[in-house]
Specification:
The protein has 239 residues and is an alpha/beta fold. It has one domain: 3-Layer(aba) Sandwich (Rossmann fold). The protein contains ten helices and five strands, in the order αβααβαβααβααβαα. Strands 2-1-3-4-5 form a five-stranded parallel β-sheet, sandwiched between helices. Helix 6 crosses helix 8. The protein is globular, with a radius of gyration of 17 Å. The protein starts with a helix and ends with a helix.
């Protein structure tokens, strides 16, 4: 079997090459000012944060804001710093070179799948994730209650993952190991942690949870993620 097309597809979808809907340089950094009683929101991450392969309004940050608005918690248009293929060090470098407001009311952080995919050291991931978590806290004005970390989904459960030629059980094991690290470091700082990994594995049996590229989440799955994160956000801002 000729594996070249598979290799090319792996690089283009999960790495830093261009896709049909976003390029490797795509980064949404639209600045939003707090207006009236609206809360400002900064979302940090990779393809799972920009919503690769779905319309922007179906990404989890936009759906989180929309769902919160239905609960009378007004969140403004998210400011997103994310690009498909980014690892922890690439996200941190981008944050440093991006003009952002000094403070946001809400900050979410979801990062690490590309560290796992590229076979990077989990110890290095721990160090870089800790730095990113501190960065997120700093942009939340030092208020750890306003930071919300989201676990890494399992891309091995998707059709793309099954066709990648990699061991699905091993992918799941490695994702769990990376999540054990980010969860431990998050809870050490008394920051909210939302596990969406188990839900992401439903893609193995439900094709409606996967976008047209066969790899990234559909709007339906992102809606589920937003529903998982929302209670933690509401518990802080609607006391």
């Amino acid at each position: 079997m000729n594996i070249t097309p598979v290799i090319v597809l792996l690089i283009s979808l999960l790495g830093c090459a261009k896709s049909s809907t976003h390029t490797d340089t795509k980064m949404d950094t639209i600045q939003t000012e707090k207006s009236g009683n609206q809360l400002s929101y900064l979302a940090l991450g990779d393809s799972y944060t920009i919503g690769e392969a779905v319309p922007q309004d179906q990404s989890f940050p936009y759906q989180l804001a929309a769902t919160a608005n239905l609960q009378a918690l007004k969140i403004g248009k998210p400011t997103i710093v994310a690009t498909t293929g980014w690892t922890t060090n690439e996200l941190q470098a981008a944050i440093k070179s991006t003009s952002l407001q000094p403070k946001y009311d809400i900050v979410t952080l979801l990062i690490g799948v590309n560290n796992q995919y590229r076979g990077y050291s989990i110890d290095t991931y721990r160090t870089e994730f800790k730095d990113l978590l501190q960065t997120a806290i700093s942009y939340a004005g030092g208020n750890t209650a306003h930071v919300f970390v989201v676990s890494i989904p399992d891309w091995g459960a998707t059709p793309f993952g099954k066709q990648s030629g990699r061991n699905i059980a091993e992918i799941a094991k490695e994702i769990d190991a990376f999540n054990a690290v980010n969860r431990e470091e998050t809870l050490k700082r008394s920051v909210s942690y939302t596990d969406i990994t188990s839900a992401s594995r439903n893609a193995a049996t439900d094709g409606t949870l996967v976008a047209g590229d066969g790899l990234h989440p559909s709007g339906k799955m992102y809606q589920d993620w937003a529903a998982h994160i929302l209670p933690s956000v509401l518990s802080v801002f609607k006391k």
